[in-house]
């Protein structure tokens, strides 16, 4: 059975889409999408040999070799231009997802939807989307097995559209802030607790330039989160 996290990612894939799942590991998501008649064709990309082998095995076992192409390579280099119209990247940090998109920019022309699931650091991912002509269209926050995940769905459009208070919304997500649900509050309460502990440690460590900068950054963030 697919994790709730990946099931939620799959929910955003348009019916009949041609999908590249980058960092696919076991290719669970592409298999699910084909078996459930969501995607018409998938590429499962993996950069590491072990997970690449797992993906190959999984696809073979499911008998889906004709609909899922498993490829080894870094980020978007595994797809050719206009091969897919939807990209999913899940289960990595936001900065890594942003760097995969940045390095693969030339492959994004024919793509109209990005479904991204950063485990941490979604600020840098929202920032990348905003700076590169992608409009944030939907966001979700979910909790599974005690972990909290965000899903960002982006389309080509008007990048500034969802934003009114840029810094806080890049950090916490404009849609998630508005919805302000229980999981969202839990996430930011936990983050604040962490930041306050780090702040206390920095206070004890004494004054140096680096500590001062870090303290200012953390205090700024705490203020943003407390403002919600
Ligand atoms: N997407 C699956 C999920 O959400 O359950 C797997 C997540 S797993 C934690 C991250 C996978 O991304 C690993 O298998 C890793 O090898 C792969 N990965 C990391 N950087 C990558 C890159 N630049 N290109 C392709 N795959 C990458």
UniProtKB/TrEMBL annotation:
<keyword id="KW-0175">Coiled coil</keyword>
<dbReference type="InterPro" id="IPR006901">
    <property type="entry name" value="TrmK"/>
</dbReference>
<dbReference type="GO" id="GO:0160105">
    <property type="term" value="F:tRNA (adenine(22)-N1)-methyltransferase activity"/>
</dbReference>
<protein>
    <submittedName>
        <fullName>tRNA (Adenine-N(1))-methyltransferase</fullName>
    </submittedName>
</protein>
<keyword id="KW-0808">Transferase</keyword>
<dbReference type="GO" id="GO:0032259">
    <property type="term" value="P:methylation"/>
</dbReference>
<keyword id="KW-0489">Methyltransferase</keyword>
<feature type="coiled-coil region">
    <location>
        <begin position="185"/>
        <end position="219"/>
    </location>
</feature>
<dbReference type="Pfam" id="PF04816">
    <property type="entry name" value="TrmK"/>
</dbReference>
<dbReference type="InterPro" id="IPR029063">
    <property type="entry name" value="SAM-dependent_MTases_sf"/>
</dbReference>
């Amino acid at each position: 059975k697919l994790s709730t996290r990946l099931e939620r990612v799959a929910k955003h894939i348009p019916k009949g889409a041609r999908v590249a799942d980058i960092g696919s590991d076991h290719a669970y998501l592409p298999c699910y999408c084909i078996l459930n008649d969501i995607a018409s064709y998938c590429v499962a990309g993996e950069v590491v040999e072990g997970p690449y082998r797992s993906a190959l095995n999984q696809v073979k076992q499911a008998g889906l070799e004709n609909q899922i192409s498993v490829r080894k390579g870094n980020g978007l280099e595994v797809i050719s231009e206009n091969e897919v119209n939807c990209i999913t990247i899940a289960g990595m940090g936001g900065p890594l997802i942003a760097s995969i998109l940045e390095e693969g920019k030339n492959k994004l022309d024919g793509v109209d939807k990005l479904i991204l699931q950063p485990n941490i650091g979604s600020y840098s991912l929202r920032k990348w989307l905003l700076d590169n002509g992608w409009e944030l269209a939907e966001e979700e926050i979910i909790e599974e097995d005690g972990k909290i995940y965000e899903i960002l769905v982006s389309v080509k459009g008007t990048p500034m559209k969802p934003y009114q208070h840029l810094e806080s919304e890049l950090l916490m997500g404009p849609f998630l802030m508005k919805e302000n649900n229980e999981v969202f509050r839990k996430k930011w309460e936990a983050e604040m607790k962490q930041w306050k502990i780090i702040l206390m440690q920095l206070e004890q460590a004494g004054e140096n330039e680096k500590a001062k900068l870090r303290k200012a950054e953390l205090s700024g963030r705490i203020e943003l989160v407390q403002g919600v």
